[in-house]
Design brief:
The complex is a heterotrimer of chains A (277), B (393) and C (239). Chain A has a domain of 34 residues. Chain A contains nine helices and eleven strands. The longest helix of chain A has 24 residues. Chain A is globular, with a radius of gyration of 24 Å. Chain A starts with a helix and ends in a 7-residue tail after the last strand. Chain B has 393 residues and is mainly alpha-helical. Chain B has one domain: Formate dehydrogenase/DMSO reductase domain (Formate dehydrogenase/DMSO reductase fold, Up-down Bundle). Chain B is 70% helix and 2% strand. In chain B, strands 1-2 form a two-stranded antiparallel sheet. In chain B, helix 8 packs antiparallel against helix 9. Chain C is built from nine helices and two strands, in the order H-H-H-H-H-H-H-H-E-H-E. The longest helix of chain C is centred in the first third of the chain and has 14 residues. Among the domains of chain C are: 81 residues, no CATH class; 60 residues, no CATH class. Chain C is an all-alpha fold and 239 residues long. Chain C has a two-stranded parallel sheet with strand order 1-2. The chains are: A alpha+beta (277), B mainly alpha (393), C mainly alpha (239). Chains in contact: A-B, A-C, B-C. Chains A and C meet through helix 1, helix 2, helix 3, helix 4 and strand 2 of A and helix 1, helix 2 and helix 6 of C.
Amino acid sequence: MGNKISRRQLIKDGGKTLLGGIFILSVPSLLRSFTRTEEPPNPAAAAQLDQRDWETRYWGFICDTEKCIGCGRCVVACKLENKVPWEPEYNRTWVERYIFTMDGEVFVDSPNAGRDGFTAEPMNLKYQNLDVSKSFFVPKLCNQCDNPPCVTVCPVNATYRTEDGVVLIDQEHCIGCRYCIQACPYGARYVLPEASSTHFGQVRVVDKCTWCYHRISKGLLPACVEICPVGARVFGDLRDPDSPVRKMLSEKRVYVLKPTLGTEPKVYYVGFEKGVQ
Amino acid sequence: MEGFIYPNEGVVEWDLLITIYPFITGLVAGAFVVSSLYHVFGMKSLKPVARFSLITALAFLLVTPLPLIVHLGHQERGLEMFLTPNFTSAMSAFGYIWLMYLLLVLGEVWLIFRPDIVRYALSSQGIKKTIYSVLALGVYDVSEEALSIDRKLIKALAAIGVPAAFLLHGYVGFIFGAVKANPWWSTSLMPVIFLMSAVVSGIALLIGMYIVVAKIRRMPLDHGCLRSMTLWLWGFLSLDLVLEGLEVFTMLYESEESWGIVHQLITEKIAVSYLGIQFVLGSVLPLLIIGFIELSGLKENIKTPFRFVSAFLVVAGVFAMRWNVVIGGQLLSKSLRGFISYTPPLLGLDGILVAAAIMTLPFIAFFILSHLLPPWPEETRVGERKTLSFQQW
Amino acid sequence: MLLAVFLFVFIGLRVMPVPAFLEDFGFHKRDAQKNEQQWASLPINYASSPACAQCHQSNYTSWQQGDHRTVSCENCHGPANIHLEGKALPVVDTSRELCGTCHAKLTARPASFPQVDMNEMGGDSKCITCHNPHDPRAGMPPQVPHTLENRAQCLSCHGQHEPWLRPPPQVPHTLEGRTQCLSCHGPEVIKATVVPRVPHTLDGRAECLVCHNSGGIKPFPENHAGRTSATCLSCHQQG
């Protein structure tokens, strides 16, 4: 029948157009992948990496709220190491102060994410009239979850989890849809503003704490751990029995943030308190 | 900012543009449901608006990706959703679902309007002839046999199209409902609520557009059709109200840790748009008005303005619902201890002007499409008296 | 037929594996080693304190032995990597505010952390006038690190022939139902675990809590909270 044949032809043509369209549109990206160089940009760094047994390590982090003094040097160190934007303010890590009063109220604050400490007035005096029963500082950063909701929801696979347990973002691939920011229960993610200049040189894409992946891959400590003057942040290999993290985990009672959500965070908190979230 | 929020939370990331996106897709789903009620389930009373609603659905469908693309941080990378999708992300389904649904609706429109296209292609001149010849895609057979095959295909497409429309809008609900980090969004009822309010908004929009367009074209209204649409609206609206009420009531009853801040959100922060516009003005009031006038014995031309007002209220209520879910959910901090505030700017890509422009585009598209493919049944066209076989369906 | 096209577009394209040459496009980072190399090639700004020892030997030595040995050099002096490459570091901030960032008295800080009321200590002058930042206690007279209440007789603890005391071993259980300490910790030692004994005489030391309370020099452990001096000797025998 005249009708049937032409309809089949129509469908065939339609299908071909569709596939052809997809193929044509992917040509620019194919070209880009061919012109990209294969060698690592820094052969010296590569040589450094090959010597260590990086395939078996698994990173972990401890925040000790019994030691944290709220000086905020970690926030500053992170911003200087990773070129995190100062203005408008975004933070890969921050410090919160919790104040519990005698009649059961809880006050939480984090002025400028704690980057200037908590000692300048008026933030120092904000709670001086309260009948305080307990107060302490809680450092926060990306928990590098083992079951990360941010990786699940990224529509283009721009954020991913590495073999050693760190969740990273491929900022050349991120389309800036910000679904991961909505999905993160800990507020660890943010969008790089227009005027920012991080190491990958991208704007309007999502960024977050990487546990200084560029440092830990060379055997160094993350900047915040390096700087902390009281040892409230501990970092190490969970599979190495001599690492400070393993040792502390075997001695202290630890807790994680929002465990009921099932994200399996890898930042463990010593000295946790109900009401910290 | 009030209370304590995480330092990175000061900005509402999914802003006005993301609020109008589910609104537009919802209208698509609702309009398509009306069209399918006739084409699949054979509701004769809806015949006058069957083709009209399909054109409306297509017009809105074409505009659907626009707010999403404008909202992206990198629009030029938008195609990555097709090339490198993440199978676990509901959002990555958008590209494929929308494309499939577009092809489906285009196919159905083409099949339904094919006799008209053929007629125009054969009888017009110049540019019009070219346009219609292209649209005809080389198929000029309008014999009875061909048309019966068309009818079967239309029925099939409309039948597939109903779950496809549900998928198109349901996945948006899932995008919100599956976010465990946000207590206002996280509920398994979310896809169903989005879907019900979508159908409701689509039907209400059709009622409103039908009345307005009939007035502009000085066409007589088919009151049976209007009554039918209004009754369907009433049915879906009451179901929608029950679902939305159930969601909040369950939260209140279970009284989880997040209830404190959610309660503060709906009674203080978004009280006007939630309790006022979404519930009272947008759901309860239209239910009462429609219930009253449809049960009463008022004359039809008195009922019409009430129906119009109800439809308008419903559409406003559904828009408020999108606002309350999208913006409302971001107003509360994930620390469960504070709120931020949001007023959309006037200018800029994320501003009110751009959003208003995007909202008018579907109407412009409808205008163009309805002139290209007039959806009106022959006997209501002013000044024409032709009767052709395709009118049977 | 249409259905087949839809199925192919909707499902087939999505389950097709991404070909290898597209991997370098960036997203899957399947080649974890290459990914790591790319990250490791990023510049680092913070060296660590031992790097400073190469040139600043004397400061480093005094810092390493002083109370600030847990405070990294870069904490006050800023990231040092550019200095290792030859550039001078910015002049260090020596204001009171910088010292106060850590040492100002705050309720939320752990009580054992050294903190002072910045409004009273030192007036308006810089802290470094008296405290060498690399060794804050150097040149300072040794402080009496406890209150002087009930401690009129310094020599009862700091006597000439008396070595400085060890803290008493921890009592790892509550005192409920355990009034007869010797029934477990007596001469016939039944439990071979730690036998807590008092390693000093009790002359001039009637008030145990003067030294051993929670704010004192050698505080008792947390499970001792609420106990009074009267009950110490019921577990901690002399020996």
